[in-house]
Amino acid sequence: MKARDVMTTRFWTLRADDTIADAVNRFREASRKQGKNVFGMMVTDDDARLVGMLSMYDILVFVQPRHAGIWSELDDMDQAGLFDGMLARVKHIRVGDLMTPDVVTITPDTHLMAIVDLMIKRHIRRLPVVDQGDVVGMVYISDLFYHLLRQYLV
What we know:
Number of helices: 6
Distance between the termini: 17 Å
Oligomer: single chain
CATH superfamily: CBS-domain
């Protein structure tokens, strides 16, 4: 079994010059249309070449105040106001400023067990499938997990 057996060929992309607000709206739209939550997307250039990945995690890391770990000790601080301020500022940040530019990719012929190994070792939840420079699909860890369950346990 190979990546081509579990990859989805229906995927959404972002552009590096999109705003984070645009990206969040695109996450919502994709989630609604696909019927499952979408937490990250590929970022492509004008030639549809992969240039990065953006996930909700990337956005949360950016908006989290440096001292958030001690918030429970700060009773007199307006925590909601601080967070609202960070979220208001991030709306205008560009996807290219927060995306991960060094993306791990696989090919359609990558064996499923190699994908599992890669995802576990690198803590990756989604892998773009690239064939000779063209993005042809995406393998999500949830799809891989359920595919393997169906093949071997059910």
